[in-house]
Each structure stands twice: as structure tokens, then as C-alpha cells.
Amino acid sequence: MKIELCPSILSANFAQLGTDAQLAIDGGGTVLHVDIMDGHFVPNITIGPPVVASIRKATSLPLDCHLMIDNPNDFIAAFADAGANWVSVHYEICPHLHRTLEMIIDHGMKAGVVINPATRVDLITEILPMVHHVLIMSVNPGFGGQEFIPFPLDKIRRLAAIRSELGLGFKIEVDGGVAHDTVSAIVKAGAELLVAGNAVFGAGKPERDARALLAAARKAAGEKAPGKTVGRKSKIY
Ligand code: DX5
Ligand code: ZN
């Protein structure tokens, strides 16, 4: 599957969010990852539907809303109205996960399921046919800039094997500590949607750093860099 970079705006400068997001897109980001935190499920508070609605006006790229909130069912309609395209919910907070995923799909959005580092992949097997993506957390959710936890790499490999056994097409997304020193192992384990906050926005050069991270990821995946393919007319003998 195609490698895609999903810049996480959590580490952007919120006073110039539109500008920062556009720079990350210019650097090759093709999905914007938006972290929604409520101070209950995770020990931090971020943004909600009004900010998603503002970002919606600034880009036509998919908005990938990662809900880290209690009672996500109560907010699905609001995120749909705000223009979210993908909504993912944590296995750990959804006692009726099937119903929640159905609600997301019924609101015309792509549904994703997220699992924390300590949650086993096999717990979500039954709902995999419903989801557009599975988000494997490689940090405990709540903050940007945390250190990558390595053992979820095995979960990526396991999930890729299950996907192939079941003949499914969902995407595998990874979130937390995706950076230059970790991206190669992440891609080689089988992930294709790479969420990155600090590695893209942390140094204040989102375009440059998105481009460099994406290039490293594509190299690890054995993909050619865009624009470098040799066409028929320019074939070199
Ligand atoms: C953490 C969030 C992440 C966060 C990742 O709870 O879900 O999306 O932005 O940040 P980095 O890439 O800095 O680890
Ligand atoms: Zn996230």
C-alpha cells in the first residue's frame, strides 16, 4: 500500500494553524491528523468541532479526527457537521464498539479503531471488516513529543498478517514518536499511514521536515520518490 504522511496539528503553532497546516501539506502531507482530547480519557485538552470546521475551510484533504474522549457517540454528529472525513475511536473507551463504528459510517465518514500500546490486536478482529483504518498507538495518548514505544511494532506485523489472512483492505496507521530514527522500522513492520506531530512541526519548519520524513519513509518502503520516474521519452540507455 501507498505510504502517506499524516501531519498531526497537535504540535503546530495554533496561532497560525492554517499556515502551518498548509506548509506540512506542501511538504507532502496528504491527510491532516487532528487530535481531540477532553481531559478525561487522556490527561490533556485540545480542540473540538469548531476548530475542525475552520480547518475544513482551509483544505480539501481528508481530516483524520482521532477522538480521545469519553462518550464519543455524543460527538459523532458534531464532527460530521464540522466536515471531518475520518473518525477513529479508542477500543478502550467504547463498550459497544460496533455501534459506535456504525454511527460513524452512518454519518458518512470513514471509521477507524484505535488501540493503546497495552491493548492486544486480536481484541479487534471481529470489527476489522467495518473499518477504513486501524490506528496503532506507539505512545500512551495525550501528548505530542513522547518517546516511541517499540513493542507495538510487533502489533503492526500481527495486524498486517490478520489483514492478509482475512483478505481485508483497511489501512494501518501509527501514531506517536514517528520520527527519523523510528520511521524505517515502522514502515518495514507494515504501516502505511504515518502520523507525525513533533517531527513535522517541532522545529518550526513543517514543509522541510515533512518532506524529509516522507522521503525517509518511502525509502524504507522501497518506493520511488515522486517525480523521479523515468518516462519512455527520457529513458536512459
Ligand atoms: C498523541 C497524539 C498524537 C500526537 C503525536 O496522543 O495522538 O497524534 O500528535 O505526536 P508525536 O508525533 O509528536 O509523537
Ligand atoms: Zn493522534
Structure description:
Mean pLDDT is 95; it is low at 228-237. 33% of the residues lie in helices and 17% in strands. The longest helix is centred in the last third of the chain and has 16 residues, at 206-221. The protein is built from 8 helices and 8 strands, in the order E-H-E-H-E-H-E-H-E-E-H-E-H-E-H-H. Zinc ion (ZN) binds next to strand 2.
Topology summary:
Blueprint: E1 4-7, H1 17-26, E2 32-37, H2 49-58, E3 63-68, H3 76-82, E4 86-90, H4 97-106, E5 110-115, E6 133-137, H5 152-166, E7 171-175, H6 183-189, E8 193-196, H7 198-201, H8 206-221
Parallel strand pairs: 1-8, 2-3, 3-4, 4-5, 5-6, 6-7, 7-8
The structure holds D-xylitol-5-phosphate (DX5) and zinc ion.
User: Strand tally, please?
Assistant: 8
Number of helical elements: 8
Binned strand content: 15-25%
Q: Estimate the helix proportion, in percent.
A: 25-40%
The coarse overall form would be globular
Distance between the amino and carboxyl termini: 30 Å
What is the arithmetic mean of pLDDT?
Answer: 95
| Sequence stretches where pLDDT stays below 50 over 5 or more residues | 228-237
> Topology as H/E string?
EHEHEHEHEEHEHEHH
Structural class: alpha/beta
Hetero groups in this structure are: D-xylitol-5-phosphate, zinc ion
